[in-house]
Amino acid sequence: MFAVRNNCISEETAFCKQDNLQQSLNTLNEEFESFGISSVTINNDLQTLESLKDLSIQVTNATWKMIHKHRYLMRLHDQLIDLNHKTVNDNVNLKNHVKRLKEDIQKKEHMICKAEERERRLNVKCEDASRNLKQERDEIRKLKKQIQFKETQHEHEIRRITQSSQKLQEQLQKSAGSFTPKDKLLQKIHEKELISYKQTICRLEENNRHMLEEINNLKEALELHQTGIALHIEASGAWTNADI
């Protein structure tokens, strides 16, 4: 280390000698001017003490200015290094922030895709529910018409049975009034008519019973369809709320 220092000192002392003082001063002036420092005025007569003193003062002032200039440039250099480090850190932070934003965008896009798919499925379910609801309503209208028709038919059948029963009773009364025990032929005819009347009444009553059962079955089917419609409406409302 001392050897390097000695070499530097020897090189510095070797820069200016008595025989090249004028040339060394000119070189220094060029360096001073490159740093924006006023050059040293060189008199032709450097033998007098006064001229050497004036030259020393100029060189000292120029050197002092160069030292301050050097310190200023070093501070500026340090500031630029700090600014560069800050810029690098800002770039790293910005890249990380951009990366996080991209990840957030991807997550949001994935959530949007899931929401759209969920909405599509809910729309399909709502369309199916609406279609089923329409079918159930059509079926209910058909059942109501069938029930109304059966009830009307039942009323007509009851009136017909009542009228037939009344006629049979009248015929029985007439037959009973005209019956004589001595006439066996009339007795047999009377018995056959009586059996036929009873069979007719039983058949009419059986038809009436079947018709009542059919009406009850239609009413039960109507209630089931109405319950199904209520469930469809409730489910459709739940899907709509979930979609919202």
TrEMBL record:
<feature type="coiled-coil region">
    <location>
        <begin position="91"/>
        <end position="160"/>
    </location>
</feature>
<dbReference type="GO" id="GO:0070161">
    <property type="term" value="C:anchoring junction"/>
</dbReference>
<dbReference type="GO" id="GO:0036064">
    <property type="term" value="C:ciliary basal body"/>
</dbReference>
<dbReference type="GO" id="GO:0034451">
    <property type="term" value="C:centriolar satellite"/>
</dbReference>
<keyword id="KW-0130">Cell adhesion</keyword>
<dbReference type="GO" id="GO:0035735">
    <property type="term" value="P:intraciliary transport involved in cilium assembly"/>
</dbReference>
<keyword id="KW-0206">Cytoskeleton</keyword>
<keyword id="KW-0965">Cell junction</keyword>
<dbReference type="InterPro" id="IPR021622">
    <property type="entry name" value="Afadin/alpha-actinin-bd"/>
</dbReference>
<dbReference type="InterPro" id="IPR052300">
    <property type="entry name" value="Adhesion_Centrosome_assoc"/>
</dbReference>
<dbReference type="GO" id="GO:0007155">
    <property type="term" value="P:cell adhesion"/>
</dbReference>
<comment type="similarity">
    <text>Belongs to the ADIP family.</text>
</comment>
<dbReference type="Pfam" id="PF11559">
    <property type="entry name" value="ADIP"/>
</dbReference>
<keyword id="KW-0175">Coiled coil</keyword>
<protein>
    <submittedName>
        <fullName>Afadin-and alpha-actinin-binding protein</fullName>
    </submittedName>
</protein>
<keyword id="KW-0963">Cytoplasm</keyword>
